[in-house]
Design goal:
- This protein has a domain at about 1-45.
- A 3-stranded antiparallel beta sheet has the order 2-1-3, with no helix packed on it.
- It has helices spanning about 50-60, 65-70; strands at about 5-10, 15-20, 35-40.
- With about 80 residues, it is of the alpha+beta class.
- The two termini are about 35 Å apart.
- The protein contains 2 helices and 3 strands.
Length: about 80
């Protein structure tokens, strides 16, 4: 099942919902009004996404700060 993007026509809230393509649009989780489907970016899965997943894991800091923070090195977290 695809992850579809929706936007509320009343309050403007955007959200995602896992549902079949041919299902009717869900009501807004915030105000209950009608929603419209929005074009979203495709999700990449499979062998090609392994490098991306590894890169994202390497960017996560360990609890208590990154290695440079623990060593007292000068750097910035921008």
């Amino acid at each position: 099942m695809p992850l579809l993007n929706f936007s509320c026509s009343s309050c403007g809230v955007s959200f995602e919902n896992l549902m079949p393509y041919n299902a009717s649009n869900p009501c807004c989780p915030s105000c209950g009004s009608s929603t419209s489907r929005q074009i979203g970016l495709p999700t990449i899965r499979g062998q090609m996404s392994i490098g991306r997943d590894l890169a994202m894991k390497s960017l996560k800091h360990e609890e208590g700060g990154c290695r440079c923070c623990k060593a007292g090195g000068m750097h910035s977290h921008m």
